[in-house]
Specification:
The complex is a heterodimer of chains A (232) and B (81).
Chain A lengths: L5 H18 L3 E4 L4 H22 L11 H7 L2 E3 L2 E4 L9 H20 L8 H10 L5 H26 L5 H12 L3 H19 L7 H13 L10
Parallel strand pairs in A: 1-3
Antiparallel strand pairs in A: 2-3
Helix pairs in contact in A: 1-4, 1-9, 2-3, 4-5, 4-6, 4-9, 5-6, 6-8, 6-9, 7-8
Chain B lengths: L1 H14 L15 E4 L2 E5 L5 E3 L11 E4 L5 E4 L8
Classes of the chains: A mainly alpha (232), B alpha+beta (81).
């Protein structure tokens, strides 16, 4: 099978973005242009500096955080309804990254808008505060494991459409643990969520996650030529 | 956005960690179908929903496999709903 052109991949990535945006409006921005994300990158630099200093004193800090450069150039991040992607991914050559990551991030926008019951906290703030509390509480870690497990399933479903099969469950779980410094309760919850989604996919289904259903449905209808056409 | 993040941080600092309200379960690691959606019993012993839609949104049905794992099955899949 002939590999799809960059132009075709870019066209499909933009079409899928327009579709998701028509269902749940969001803003897709360049991460490096965002003052909030630059501030987070600066905080990561300070944290790494502190960890390096403690390492000199033979004190190991068991937290795996991305470097400031990696945070800006290798990760998509969603805050509220703003999806921030590395600038390089906005070019046509970044279409594969956008196809893989944008539906995942759109699921986070939906999670933010849906919210959950978090006691007296207003629903509109519940996603953000529970997500932020994941480093300090098992309750938050389980929430992060759940929402990332669902979002990883979205990426896995799109990957399965494009390449013919999803990434292995072990690879997805390892990536999740590595990228989010999950506490054990969060890692267990993420594994429980992802195992279920992978079983659904192995039985020929699409994960019961909004962005997975919308994305695979749109790709089926508008980009059937890409089904299984992308090299892993 | 910056003000909202600052407000959330302030409220968070003043109130302690939020409590995610979920139904209680007894056996961590178990699955169950609730509202045609798989749920996972998390380490905190609370039922945690898998996904955000019922399986019927894609013409499937929640089922528990022979090994106890919950998923969205084809309607003719034979899993016990």
């Amino acid at each position: 099978m002939k590999a799809p052109s960059i132009e075709r991949l870019d066209e499909v990535a933009l079409g899928l973005r327009a579709h998701l945006n028509s269902k749940i409006p969001a803003q897709v921005i360049a991460k490096e242009d965002s003052s909030v994300h630059r501030a987070i990158a600066s905080a990561l630099s300070v944290a790494h500096g502190g960890a390096a200093l403690l390492a000199h004193l033979s004190i190991d800090v068991p937290v795996n955080l991305p470097s400031a450069e990696d945070y800006l150039s290798r990760f998509g991040t969603t805050i509220g309804t703003a999806i921030a992607l590395p600038r390089a991914w906005h070019r046509p050559e970044g279409a594969i990254e956008r196809l893989y990551v944008e539906p995942h991030e759109w699921q986070h926008v939906k999670q933010h808008l849906d919210g959950v019951d978090a006691g007296w906290w207003p629903r509109v703030a519940s996603h953000t505060v529970l997500y932020a509390s994941s480093v300090a509480s098992d309750e938050g870690a389980e929430y992060l494991g759940k929402v990332e497990g669902d979002a990883y399933a979205v990426s896995a479903a799109v990957w399965a459409f494009l390449t013919g099969s999803p990434p292995s469950l072990d690879d997805s779980l390892a990536s999740l643990r590595r990228n989010y410094a999950l506490r054990p309760a969060g890692a267990d919850t993420a594994a429980g969520i992802l195992r279920s989604h992978y079983r659904t996919m192995r039985r020929g289904g699409v994960p019961n996650v909004w962005a997975a259903r919308e994305s695979v449905g749109w790709l089926d209808a508008n980009a059937a030529d890409l089904r299984g056409a992308v090299a892993r | 956005m910056k003000r909202a993040v600052a407000l959330a941080a302030l409220l968070f600092g003043l109130s302690g960690c939020p409590d995610w309200q979920r139904p209680a379960c007894e056996q961590p690691g178990a699955y169950v179908c609730r509202g045609d959606q798989p749920h996972y019993c998390a380490p905190s012993r609370e039922w945690t929903p898998v996904g955000d839609e019922p399986c019927s949104a894609q013409g499937r049905v929640c089922a528990i496999d022979a090994d106890g794992e919950g998923f969205c099955a084809e309607r003719s899949d034979g899993g016990a709903p």
